[in-house]
Design a protein that fits this description.
Layout (H helix, E strand, L loop, with lengths): L2 H14 L7 H7 L1 H4 L28 E12 L6 E10 L4 E12 L2 E17 L2 E16 L19 E15 L3 E7 L12 H7 L12 E7 L1 E2 L4 E11 L6 E10 L3 E8 L7 E9 L3 E9 L10 E11 L2
Antiparallel strand pairs: 1-2, 1-15, 2-3, 3-4, 4-5, 5-6, 6-7, 7-8, 8-10, 9-10, 10-11, 11-12, 12-13, 13-14, 14-15
């Protein structure tokens, strides 16, 4: 029996016993192979909030913009991931882009929040190609709220003392190549691979299942897209987003977005190696080429549709032209 079958069997047992609470923390401990890719906050509308993936994209734009993402994942499953991301980024001078991000990600009794600021330097390689290099620095705070953990033995050493809180430095390096209608770039978040030390070395190794030494594992993100104008009114934008981390399967999102008269857009994403939810539908509306409102729905797989109804994500973007 593979891990996916074990997870589904466990969910069936919980449902039969009518358990009031499902602790996602223990899912992460027991089934790290499935959830370890959730170590960093996840968003579906990465095409609209690409700075949250790679800070180097700040060098592409001639204006500042603010993007807010609110995500409620695995609706119907108790204590599923809930993510909020706010980012502001854009052009500061001819060659310099600035940006910053604040986020909060809650899963069951665990939460992760933080903030960062970035500096991007962009320069032309050719008349039609630009290269941007970015360095982002900030902090990350991890918290385990013990009152939200259901255990049989409240005297378990894990439950003694107050909540576990750790604040760590964090950094990301990114680069981005861009042209008039395309871009491709890569970023390495959690560049410092900071030690978690949530309680002791043994517990840290269990909590961070992507690492054998209790560290925040460095990830590799690759993001790219191309915009093709079918006619003056309709354009399509295929994109891809690759996520890789040691100890987990590489995940690749393939997306497509079609826009009509720069007002209304529809899209779809397909996520490889995601057994819980591989397909998402997207739609949105632009107002006066300044406000961008988006929504996405992540469909549950046939194997998990009995346990949650899907994932919802809302996005609001505002442009501030110079």
């Amino acid at each position: 029996m593979n891990r996916k079958q074990v997870l589904l069997q466990l969910l069936d047992n919980m449902k039969m016993k009518k358990m009031k609470k499902i602790s996602i923390l223990f899912f992460a401990i027991c089934f790290g192979g499935i959830l370890k890719a959730q170590q960093l906050p996840q968003i579906t509308q990465y095409m609209n909030n690409n700075y949250a993936i790679n800070p180097a994209v700040a060098g592409m734009y001639d204006y500042y913009q603010v993007n807010t993402t609110i995500r409620n994942q695995w609706v119907g499953m108790n204590e599923g991931p809930r993510t909020n991301v706010i980012s502001i980024y854009g052009k500061h001078s001819n060659n310099v882009g600035l940006g910053g991000t604040v986020y909060n990600d809650v899963t069951g009794p665990t939460s992760r929040s933080g903030g960062s600021a970035s500096y991007t330097y962009a320069f032309s390689l050719t008349a039609k190609m630009k290269l941007s290099l970015a360095l982002q620095g900030g902090f990350t705070q991890f918290k385990i709220i013990k009152n939200n953990i259901s255990v049989q033995d409240q005297n378990d050493p894990l439950m003694l003392g107050g909540d576990v809180v750790r604040t760590l430095p964090d950094a990301t390096f990114g680069f981005n190549l861009s042209g008039d209608k395309w871009y491709i770039g890569a970023a390495i978040p959690q560049l410092l691979s900071s030690e978690l030390k949530l309680m002791d070395d043994n517990f840290a190794r269990i909590y961070d299942t992507t690492s054998q030494n209790g560290k925040l594992a460095s990830h590799i993100y690759v993001l790219g897209s191309y915009t093709y104008d079918i006619n003056p009114a309709i354009s399509i934008e295929p994109s891809f987003f690759l996520r890789a981390v040691a100890g987990a399967k590489t995940q690749i999102d393939f997306g497509i977005k079609s826009e009509y008269k720069k007002l209304f857009w529809l899209g779809m994403n397909y996520n490889m190696n995601n057994d819980l939810s591989s397909i998402a539908a997207l739609l949105g509306y632009n107002i006066n080429d300044r406000f961008n409102i988006g929504y996405s729905y992540g469909m549950p797989s046939s194997a998990t549709s009995n346990y949650y109804s899907g994932s919802h994500e809302f996005m609001l973007g505002v442009k501030f032209p110079h």
